[in-house]
Amino acid sequence: MAENNLVLQPQLFVGIDIARNTATCATASSLKAVGKPFTFPQTPGGFTELKTILLAQQPDPAHCLVVMEATGTYWMKLALDLFEAGFKLSVINPN
């Protein structure tokens, strides 16, 4: 049986600025459809709030590309939580 090499194209782009106790997120589905940034706590409840907001915009997490900065170790729990929920993730050097 042939392998299916289908690559899912992102329908929602998500940028997250990481801080010690909070993170700020902005979303865009196109250049003309950029959402207002919002801040959420770096807690399990905050992660759930973020996923709820993202899934309301794009119900399939595989169609979301989340980009966040690797600030210290503050990004790790959020990145793992989003990855386990099926979101496509890119962690970049903040420099």
Strand content of the residues, in percent?
A: 25-35%
Helical segment tally? 2
Q: What is the string of SSEs from the N terminus onward? A: EEEEHEHE
**Protein structure class:** alpha/beta
> Could you give the distance between the termini?
45 Å
Taken from the alpha-carbon principal axes, the silhouette is globular
Rg, rounded, reads 14 Å
| Main sheet specs | 6 strands, mixed
Unreliable parts:
none
How many E strands? 6
Helix content: 10-25%
Mean pLDDT comes to 91
Please give a quick description of this structure.
With 95 residues, the protein is an alpha/beta fold. It has a domain at 25-88.
Overview of this protein structure:
This protein is an alpha/beta fold. It has a domain of 64 residues. 24% of the residues lie in helices and 35% in strands. It is built from two helices and six strands; from the N terminus they run ββββαβαβ. Strands 1, 2, 3, 4, 5 and 6 form a six-stranded mixed beta sheet that branches. Strand 2 and strand 3 form a beta hairpin. The longest helix has 14 residues. The protein is globular and about 30 Å long. The mean pLDDT is 91.
What layout of secondary structure does this protein have?
Layout: E1 12-18, E2 22-30, E3 33-34, E4 38-41, H1 44-57, E5 64-69, H2 76-84, E6 88-92
Parallel strand pairs: 1-5, 5-6
Antiparallel strand pairs: 1-2, 2-3, 2-4
